[in-house]
Amino acid sequence: xxxxxxxxxxxxxAITAPALAQDADKPEYPSPNAIVDAAPxxxxxxxxxxxxxxxxxASDAEGNARRVIIQLMSDPFSQGWIRNIRKLAAAxxxxxxxxxxxxxxxxxxxxxxxYDNPESGETEQKALPEGLETVPESEYAVKSKGRADFYVTSxxxxxxxxxxxxxxxxxxxxxxxxxxxQGLKRADAYDVVTGFNAGWPVSGKDETIWPVxxxxxxxxxxxxxxxxxxxxxxxxVIGHAPRHLDRxxxxxxxxxxxxxxxxxxxxxxxxxxxxxxxxxxxxxxxIRLGDALAEDAPPAFEYLDTAGEAFAKYADARxxxxxxxxxxxxxxxxxxxxxxxxxxxxxx
Length: 348
Known about the structure:
Helices cover 14% and strands 24% of the residues. By secondary structure, it is an alpha+beta fold. A hairpin with a 6-residue loop joins strand 7 and strand 8 (160-164). The chain is globular. The termini are far apart.
C-alpha cells in the first residue's frame, strides 16, 4: 500500500452514516433535516455580521417589510469583488436603486437601472464610488492547495470523499488523485470534482477550485470579457442551477434569508427579463453591511461546518435518502442538491 494512503486516509476517505439503533416504531435512518436538527452546537459556525449584506426593499401592498440577507463569500474566493461590495455598501450607493430584471427560472438582478438595460429608457448611469478595484478574470478560481478540506459527493452509496490538500505536496497530490475511484474523477457534467470549502459549494480540477452557481447564489453582473463587473450590479439565482456560469461570472455570496421576496416578484417582459415599464421595478431602500445597521442587534446566522461529522452524515443522507418516504437511494447527488444548512441565531 502506498504510504500516501496512511495520511488521514488521504484523498479518498469514505465516511459512512451508521445506521441508528432501531425499534419497531422508528425508521432505521434519520432524514437530512433530522441530522441537522441533532447537530451539536460545536458543529455550527457563526457568520460575522460584517459578512452579511442586508437589503431592504420597499414594503409590500399590506405594508410588510421585505428584507433580504446575503452572506458574502469568504476568503479566498472573489475577494476583489467583495472589497468593492463593501465600499459600495459603506457609500450607501445602492440606496434608491432598484431590482430591474426578473427572468423566470433564472435570476433576479438589481442595481442602477441605467446599467446595460436598454429597455429601461435610462440614459445616465449612477456614478460609482472612487477606489473600486478592477478584478481580473483569473480571480474566478483559486489554487486550492493548503486552503482547506474539500469534500466530494460521490456516485456510490454512503460515501463522502475528503481531500486533505494541506497535507500533500505536489507529487503526493498527483498520486492521491490517480488512486481515486473513477466515479470521483468526474463528479458531474461540468467539473472533475465537486464539494464544499469552508461552508461553500465548490468545484475543482487538479489544484484549482471555484465557487458554483446554486439556487440563491449571488453573482456579479458584467459586460463582455474582459470586463468582470465592479460588484455594483448583482443578481441571485432563482431557478435551476446555471452551472454554465461557473468561472465565467464571479460568485460573491448567497441569500440566507428572504429569498422569497425576490423569487416571487413579477417576471419582466423585456429581453432577458428586464422590466420595460419603470413602475414595475422594485425600489431598494437601502443595502448595508450587517454591522453597520442602525438596529441595536445586527442579524445573526450560523452555518453547519462542512468539515464536521454532522455535515458528512447530512450530505450522505441527501445523496441517499433512506427515510420512510423513499424507496430507492439515489446513490449520489448534484452539488446544488446538498444545500449547506444555514440558520438564524435566536436572540437570548
